[in-house]
Amino acid sequence: MPIIQIQSLPQKPSIIRDNAIRKLCTEVSKQCGIPEKNVWATWEIMEPRNYTEGDQLADEQPEQTHPPIVNVIVFEGATQEKIEKMLKSIADTLCKELKLAEGNVFIRYTQVKSGMIYSGGEIVYKQ
Fold first, then answer.
1. pTM for this one?
2. Which of 17, 32, 57, 105 is the most buried (most CB within 10 A)?
3. pLDDT-derived band of residue 126, with 50, 70 and 90 as boundaries?
């Protein structure tokens, strides 16, 4: 049940964000052995010039700087190997789909304890 939350500057006109977010969910599902319906993603676009790296502002997503900021919310309990596999899958897919320099993505992995999520009308526990 990863929920992938992305914040980024507007993409270049040649980038189709709809395709990128769908590809991201599909790749994470495939690489991590998770059913596609259990991988969710949201994407918020920052206003141009509302993201600075040092003193450098940008109007749209540069290839080398201002990495998309990603938060991944998951249940606790994954092995370090599985965590790394998911992080790498997200980074590789976003770099490829957004035509970014290798590694130009920032990802924070947030673990949630079983019993601390409400979804589908009930408290969710890790099985």
1. 0.93
2. 105
3. confident
